[in-house]
Amino acid sequence: MQETRPDPFRSGRDYIGSADDMAKRQRDTSDGRDRRGAEIVDTYQKGNRSDRRTKEQRAMNERGGVEKLDNKRNEVAREKWESMNIEEPK
Question: pTM of the full predicted structure?
């Protein structure tokens, strides 16, 4: 039930993701990311997809947005940010 910010990946940039089971997620290296140093930056109620996605996008935008992270895409489409009270990247 955590938002996570693992150590920088190959790009040298942070990655923002979410996990219902942090221990399990840290063991998953299928995408090449080392999550052992992941930092919890927020929490959400397990199963609450809307809250999870909103908080993940906010965390991404607080760090400059997808362009400044190792993330490949936004979690929430940009055109939905205003209705979901998500601020533009800083």
Answer: 0.82
